[in-house]
Amino acid sequence: MSHVWDGPLEKMDDCRWRIPKSYKAGMRVDGIVYADEKLLKDIRHDKALEQVANVAFLPGIVKASFGMPDIHWGYGFPIGGVAAMDIEKGGVVSPGGVGYDINCGVRLVRTDLLEKDVRPRLKELVTGLFQAVPSGVGSEGDIRVTAREEKEILAKGAAWAVGQGFGTRDDLDATEEHGCMPDADPDKVSERAYARGRKQSGTLGSGNHFLEVQAIDQLYDREAADVLGLEEGQVMVMIHSGSRGLGYQVCDDSLRTMEACLAKYHINVPDRQLACAPVESSEGRDYLAAMRAAANYAWNNRQCMMHLTRQVFEKIFGSSWQKLGMRLVYDVAHNIAKIETHRVKGEERTLCVHRKGATRAFGPGHPGVPEKYKTIGQPVIIPGDMGRNSYLLVGTQAAMDETFGSTCHGAGRLKSRHEAKRQVEFHALMKELEAKGIVVMASGRGTVVEEAPGAYKDVNDVVGVVHQAGIAKRVCRMRPLGVVKG
Amino acid sequence: MKRYEFLKHTADVAVRIFGRSLKDLFASAAWAMFAVILEKTKNRPGAVLTQKEIVVAEERPEDLLKGWLDELLFFFSVEHLVLVRIKSIEIDEGRLRAVVLLDAFDREYYAIKDEIKAVTYHELEVRKERYNWQAHVIFDV
User: For a tag on chain A, would you pick the N or C end, based on fewer CB atoms within 10 A?
Assistant: First the structure.
């Protein structure tokens, strides 16, 4: 790639780098990027680091504008960015700091099955999942809801699905925010957004979204694994999806409104996509109310998909999902803004924490962590690419102290989709995956090629950095067996 | 003259768009967007097309372009309609009025490439060169 970022980057230690606020007039805090030398080399090749510096311009930002090791070029905010704004000090909320796919996130389901139980029926299983969970561009599902129900979903989140019999209360307890952010206002969501989301409940979507059957291939933390009910060889299901067309439209609508706010509130930012408004303004409140509604839609969506998944397992393995031990380990968002309390310079402050391509990673004992995980910290789910690994980690006190309880979210793109398409041949890739024992089903060949393992950074490197830095702790690693792609 | 070219971008799709006039540029942008979303695999004999009128009013040409693309994207994502022909397009003092013909999406005739989440404001630009018009658009996919 021709562009190489050549701004100042000071090495703090083996996995932390600083972009000093002196880099650009207008930066209110430093930028801090978590990476090792190897990852940094790739990170320099797009505009992500410039974006870390740009985010530091936002009013009310405290501590630093953070970049995670999977950081790459986004719009306004980098993907893999964390920024927290002090509300009392005029802190802003920025839709670009959340992203188009509001509450894009991951959920991880455990099973009592072992790889050897699943292997002989893997093709059948993946085919079943592919047929049951609608995927692909503009995919529509069988879960049809009326306009009134749609509003209910936006207000209730995953509890709506549970109310329909698509899961249990335990599922909600193992979901960030119990699958529902309070103070969501379905009336702040535009008609256009409703129209784009109406037929998409319980659908996977396309792009990097997936549903995978995986097996645990390495344990790092016995104690945490015991609490989570996990062991080596065990089969897991990971679902990665978000708020679909509804969320995209909420973001798009709010970017428009917020752009006018830059002049209205005298906010100086170097990029239009950093449009924002004070949290305590009508525009800020309206966005947060709509964003929460979209987040609830996403949690309901993943709950519906897990229900469909359980049904497929029941059919194929001839037993109830409860008997198969298909318990939800956790569901976590990685595109979201939250009002949280954190210590800043020794003082408790109320902050608007933006996690754009970053995962909440609350440490042991935090009230936001489910009771059963209190001793180990909040589960953090990190999806990788379809040919390599995914991880389960737990949040730490160090993350609370440093990054507002946040860590990385995935492997992070390395090559553009275009480049991947040019370099990867579909049949060769399918052969390669088959040789590794991975069964892939996708609605489009293009997506598979774009999502080829080589298009991503190695998730092992990314997770290695956050583990070493202490902003999350490895529990176990998974390897894909079967992949459903959009 | 080519209508568009794809540029390097890590996660999304960046496109440079060309046109002889502002109208022509807008048409190119629409074709570029549908080229990102899908590809026609075979002809559809006797297709019944849907006609739609699009009206957008925006001061800045960039916003007008985004507004135009947003309308077409909405037709595709909600009504599953694919742009087939731009019957007319007029742009005058921050107002666009166009009549388009759209085909119902069918996997039999179209192969899906990427889902566009949005037409972004990021590095969005419309400018007049000496003899033609150019735009830069990043689609979030």
Answer: N
